[in-house]
Amino acid sequence: MTSPSTPAAGDTRLWEAYAIQFARRQKSSREEHFYRGHDVAREPYPIAYYLWLLKSGDDAIVVDAGFTEETARKRGNRDWIATPTDTLRALGVHPERVGDLVLTHLHYDHTGYTGAFPAARVHVQDTELAYWSGPYGRRGENPHLVEADDQALVAALADRGRVEVHRGDAEIRPGVAVHLTGGHTQGLQVVAAATAAGTLVLTSDASHFYDNIRADRPYSIVDCLRDMYDGFDWINAAASSEDLVVPGHDPLVMERFPAVEGLEGIAVRLA
User: Fold this and answer.
1) What is the separation, in whole angstroms, between the first and last Cα of the chain?
2) What element of type H or E holds 130?
3) How far apart, in whole angstroms, are the C-alpha atoms of residue 20 and residue 88?
């Protein structure tokens, strides 16, 4: 695809897209999730945890790797729903055969099952790798945002030549591209995919909730506010419609898209 909003004529593949919910944090309030949230109502505002699947024929791309049930227990206040690798198998995808794993960024809730995809090329932005392997990743609250074992695995995979390091926008497969937004982290990338419904954008943490991007109100964890706003603009321009902007942590995704039969409450078909 020449750009996510204008697929190249004739050779762009169309992809099915799924959201896979594996955990949820019910004890969460609205002011936690908005920049300078002190002026946001203190009301319950659960957060859902997802990874995403793109399928085209026998090909599959997995976007993000979640966190494990062990991490959920260790961190607490995270209700486990289903092991995402089991859900992938229920959707007809064998994790050990997946060819591409996109890590939108390296926070703990996006990296936990990286090792479950032994055949995958792992796609990460160079600025994301550099930040978390450098001195700033060890300062302040940053260590709490990652899992050291996950970081070590990504570094080891890079040493083995299994990490494809991107410096900005890149095509993963025909019809699927990543776009560097930054904002939430230095190297956050979103994923745009050509589907039968149009160009769909998986925002990951560029917009945790519908309310972030639709109300122009960034999330509370900010690396660069300007980049967050630019990311909102790019996503809105790239997606074929507002309905094809899929936020990274909103429980409403499970209500706004049809459930996969037999996987109700776990997986929905996005396009």
Assistant:
1) 18
2) helix 126-133
3) 8
Q: Beta strand 267-269 with 245-247: parallel, antiparallel or unpaired? A: unpaired
Helices assigned H by DSSP within 160-218: 210-214
> What type of residue is 256?
R
Strand 170-173, strand 176-180: pairing: antiparallel
Cα separation, 60 vs 63, whole angstroms: 10
Cα–Cα distance measured from residue 158 to residue 189, given in angstroms and rounded to the nearest whole number: 18
Domains and CATH numbers, the chain: 16-269 (3.60.15.10)
Q: Give per-residue burial for 5-40: e unless 16+ CB within 10 Å, then b.
A: bebeeeebbebbbbbbbbbbbeeeeebebbeebeeb
For 124-172, the pLDDT digits (tens) are 999 999 999 999 999 999 999 999 999 999 999 999 999 999 999 999 9
pLDDT 10s digits, 16-47: 999 999 999 987 766 676 767 556 667 777 99
Amino acid identity for residue 103 in this structure: L
